[in-house]
C-alpha cells in the first residue's frame, strides 16, 4: 500500500522542489530503479490471502461447533475462537509447541497424509479433570498419563472430529477424519519434511477457569489437491446452483400442503389483574374496537387481511374484504 503524506509533508516537498534543494529528475530516476524484496525460500508462502481467508472462515465455524460439543461433554463454561492463521515451516511449528503436550494425529480421507491437532497441556488436563468429576483445574502431568486417562482423552477428542467434518463440508469437500494415535512428544512426530509449509490455525480456548491454545497443523502437501476449492471465486461459483423445474414444483407442492394458523382478531381490551381475578360466567368485557370497524386477520401472527365477521350456514365466519399491502398498526 502506498504511503500517504500529510499536508505538512506535501508542503515541505513542494517547498524543497521550488528552492532547488531537491531535483525532480533525480526523483524520477529513483522511481525507475528496480525494487528488491528479500525472500526466504525456507518460508515459502504457498497459500494466497484468499485461501487463508477461506481457511479462517472454515475454522471459525469449526470453533463454534467445537464450543458446543465440549460444553455438552464437560458441562462447564467453554469458549473457543480462532486466534490466528499462519503459514510456516513444519520445523518451526514443532519448535513452537511445548515439549510435553497432547498431539492428535488424524487421517482425513480422501486427503492423503496426516493432520495434527495439538492441545495445550493446560487445556487437555482441565478437560480430563472435568471428565473425572473434578472442577476442571489444570495440572501439567501430560508426560505421566495413565492408560485410562489416555483412553478418556482419545474418546473426547474423537468426538470432536464430526464438527471438523461438518465445517469442511461448507466448501463442498467431504472428508472423513478419524483419530490415528495420540502422542505426547512432538519430537517423535516427523510426518512431513522440516521445510514443508504448513498452515497453523490457532484456536484460543477457555475451559472453566483454565485457558490455552488448540493448534491445527495442516500440511500443504495434504491440502494440495483441494487448494483450488479454497479460492473464494471457486466457492462463490459452486454456491450458485440453480433450482431445477422439478425441484421447484416439488417444493411448491410441499409448501402448498403446509398448515398455517389463521386468526381473526375481534378486538383488544385492557383490564386490571383484580378485574381478571373477579371475572365470572356472564360478565361482559368491553373491546376497544367499534362494532362497524373491520377485523384484522392474522396468518402465523402477522396481519395479512382485513375482514368482517358474519355467519355462513348457521356458523360463525369471517369474510375477507381486502389484502393488507402496507403495515397495519394494531394496538396489541
UniProtKB/TrEMBL annotation:
GO BP terms, alphabetized: bacterial-type flagellum-dependent swarming motility; positive chemotaxis
Highest taxon of source: Bacteria
GO cellular component, one term: bacterial-type flagellum basal body
Domain Flagellar motor switch protein FliN-like C-terminal, chain residue ranges per copy: 255-324
Subcellular locations according to the entry: Bacterial flagellum basal body; Cell membrane
Keywords from the named record: Bacterial flagellum, Cell membrane, Cell projection, Chemotaxis, Cilium, Flagellar rotation, Flagellum, Membrane
Record membrane topology: Peripheral membrane protein
Extent of the signal sequence: none
InterPro entries: CheC-like_sf, Flag_FliM, FliN-like_C, SpoA-like_sf
A Pfam family this chain is assigned to: FliM
GO molecular function, a single term: cytoskeletal motor activity
Family in the record: Belongs to the FliM family.
NCBIfam families documented for this protein: fliM_switch (TIGR01397)
Protein's name in the database: Flagellar motor switch protein FliM
Organism (species): Sporolactobacillus inulinus CASD
Organism ancestry: Bacteria, Bacillati, Bacillota, Bacilli, Bacillales
